[in-house]
Every structure is written in C-alpha cells, then in structure tokens.
Amino acid sequence: QKEVEQNSGPLSVPEGAIASLNCTYSDRVSQSFFWYRQYSGKSPELIMSIYSNGDKEDGRFTAQLNKASQYVSLLIRDSQPSDSATYLCAVPKAAGNKLTFGGGTRVLVKP
Amino acid sequence: DVKVTQSSRYLVKRTGEKVFLECVQDMDHENMFWYRQDPGLGLRLIYFSYDVKMKEKGDIPEGYSVSREKKERFSLILESASTNQTSMYLCASRGGNQPQHFGDGTRLSIL
C-alpha cells in the first residue's frame, strides 16, 4: 500500500459544480495534512492545512479530515475554469520532518 | 509570507558539466528539501537538510550532492550532468509542524 494515495483523474466537473477529491494515508500517527494546487509547469502552492478531525473552510475550499478512517478530502465549491490544476495531498512521515506527497489528482473544470 | 527563491527559472547545460542549483529561504526554517518532478512520476525527494551542515538522502540521491553552509541556503549539485537529469527541480523549506513552501522551480535541460 502506498503511504499516500490519490485518484490520478482526470476529474472532470462542469463550471459551478462541486469538485470532490479524496486522499487516503497509511500512517495512523499523522497529525497534520496539507493540500497543494499545482498548475501545469508551475510549482505547488499551499491551499489548505488541516490538523484536527472535521471540516475546515477557506473561501470556496473545504478540507475534511477523518483520522479514524485515515482519509482527508478537499471540496471545491462553485468550481471555476481557473481551478483546473493538479491537487496534491501531503502527509508528514511519522519520524522526521519530511512530507509524503500523493501522486496528485488532475481536475478539469469545463465552462 | 514565506519566500523560497531559486536562482534560475531555466537552465541549459551540457553533459559532463558540474551544475549548481541554489535555493534561499527567508523564514529561518530548519528544514530544506530538493525534489525533482517528471511527467507521470510525481514529486521525488533527492536530498533534504534538517540543520546547517546536516543532510539526509532522499529517494533518488544518485548523481547528486548537496551543501548547506548557512541556514537560509541549500544548494543542489549535479556532479557530472547527464541527459537523464533533465527535469524540473523544486526547492522547499519547512519549519516545525508547519506546511512546506516551494520555490518557483528550475527547469533544467542537459544537452
């Protein structure tokens, strides 16, 4: 089992709809979780951090964490064409200061 | 805001050359990282450093070395560049349990 798993996509959503992205992780002791957005040819940029179970909202983005089930999700409400990108889930390794990144989910928002 | 600066956005070198990629961060982060990213392969960790003069190999260290003489600067060295090292190189820094922040990336071509 990979340490951090994401569906590679592409996830195709119509403009204005909700995009739902999922990420599962294997390390039960992980305490912090991050979502990054990466446009083609650009570097990843942080869009959400979540540290406790439940939902965290920031603008059109909502991160949801369920530590018991070992998954973290990202919802993008009112999806816009500018949301078309690859979204990376990142989870710290149990020991040390490194993050493990999932392979990313490619999202395509169609006008 | 965290600022991670990579010295070059685009770089073209010849096989056999010794290549230096420089990265500077301005947030006094103890941890710094070098990744390469290739289509379909995701982010792969080359080396990371958790303190000045301290380093640890990542997943793909072969053909690379690093230097961290000052806390804010982390250099990646390609000892003898080869065409299979053509890639996007990403530097990142991280403090404690906080998110990781990336530089803009260096697109390196080895001819």
Helix/strand layout:
The complex is a heterodimer of chains A (111) and B (111).
Chain A: E1 4-6, E2 11-14, E3 19-25, E4 33-38, E5 45-50, E6 54-58, E7 61-66, E8 71-76, E9 85-92, E10 99-101, E11 105-110
Parallel strand pairs in A: 2-11
Antiparallel strand pairs in A: 1-3, 3-8, 4-5, 4-9, 6-7, 7-8, 9-10, 9-11
Chain B: E1 4-6, E2 10-13, E3 19-25, E4 31-38, E5 42-51, E6 54-57, E7 64-70, E8 73-78, E9 87-94, E10 100-102, E11 106-110
Parallel strand pairs in B: 2-11
Antiparallel strand pairs in B: 1-3, 3-8, 4-5, 4-9, 5-6, 7-8, 9-10, 9-11
Give structural notes.
The complex is a heterodimer of chains A (111) and B (111). Chain A is mainly β. In chain A, 0% of the residues lie in helices and 54% in strands. Chain A is built from no helices and 11 strands. In chain A, the strands form 2 sheets. In chain A, strands 2, 4, 5, 9, 10 and 11 form a 6-stranded mixed beta sheet that branches. Chain A is globular. The relative contact order of chain A is 0.34. Chain B is an all-beta fold and 111 residues long. Chain B is built from no helices and 11 strands. In chain B, strands 2, 4, 5, 6, 9, 10 and 11 form a 7-stranded mixed beta sheet that branches. A 4-stranded antiparallel beta sheet of chain B has the order 1-3-8-7, with no helix packed on it. The mean pLDDT of chain B is 95. The interface between A and B is medium-sized, with 21 and 22 residues.
